Amino acid sequence: MKTFLFKLIFFSMAFILLERFCHHQTRGFRISKIHSNLPHNPKWSLPPLSSNEMEEVKKALNQPYRFLDSGGQCYAFVSKDQQYVLKFFKHHHMRPSSLLDHLPTLKVLTPFLEKQKKKRTMRLEEMFTSFTIAFERLRDQTALLYLHLNKSEDLNTTLKLYDAIGIRHRIDLDNIEFALQRKASMAYPTLTTLATSGEIEAAKVRIASLLDLMITRCKQGIADHDPRKRNFGFIKEQAVEIDLGSFTLDDSLMTESTGKRTFFFETVKLRRWVKKYHPELFDFLEEEINWRLTENFEKGKVEKILN
Q1: How far is the C-alpha of 193 from the C-alpha of 278, rounded, in Å?
Q2: Can you tell me the distance from the alpha carbon of 86 to that of 109, in angstroms, rounded to the nearest whole number?
Q3: How far, rounded to the nearest angstrom, does the alpha carbon of residue 123 sit from its chain's CA centroid?
Q4: pLDDT tens, 105-135?
Q5: Which CA distances in Å does 78 have to 66, 67, 157, 229?
Q6: Residue 169 and residue 102 share a domain
Q7: Domain end point (choices 149, 182, 215)
Q8: 257 & 271 share domain
Q9: How far apart are CA 240 and CA 71, in angstroms?
Q10: pLDDT tens by residue, 191-209
Q11: Are 249 and 241 in contact (CB under 8 A)?
């Protein structure tokens, strides 16, 4: 009996360790996680692209994609030519858990089960709404080329997808929800590269573009609830937002007081980072922030809140 229990524990632990190892190597990606059984929803139907825009989309999708990264909401894959990024939604985080469906239907569990299902449904709704805001109002500012939130029949594209360990998959894009963006270089590493190589003017141009991006979003009444430094990038000299999953509409941002305050606090992390790592750019950054506060919000002087 002891031998049996020992073997059971040993093989159970071995299985768990193997599963964790595979999860780590693949970054948790599985084809089943990006598939959904979502029905067609008119709410997610978007206006068609122009013929030229659709031609670029077709060109972008006519090549293999390799695993790039795993975020909180999506798996990202980069195109062979390094020009585009495909994002597939992590539906296993959003759909009601199949485990919950198999729990006993006890009255005491009903409130908990309903709460969990509602929470996951709301998470999906918020995410799709955010991506839709990006497509309809911030397409240039997010480098978003195409958004596919309803299953379709007109793409007629089978994509070759290579996961983190190089295994090839084939997926029918008509049957999967996804977003297609132009690939951007990450903002802070780009600024560091320019500053350390003496290209100060090029760094200043990009900093100004980054501030303009924040202003544009505020003036359109769009809040970003996750304005972290990793969410910004550059395509040539233009700043773009990379993460599309945290946008909401907020008309108060278009008022002087709220808009000015929001813009100012969104620059705090950038100011601290520049002051710490590239102080030669700090005075320029302060001047640019002050000018935008005055120009876009009529009045206002940036307070010296940094030590």
Answers
A1: 11
A2: 39
A3: 14
A4: 556 666 766 676 778 889 999 999 999 999 9
A5: 5, 6, 17, 20
A6: yes
A7: 182
A8: yes
A9: 18
A10: 999 999 999 999 999 999 9
A11: no
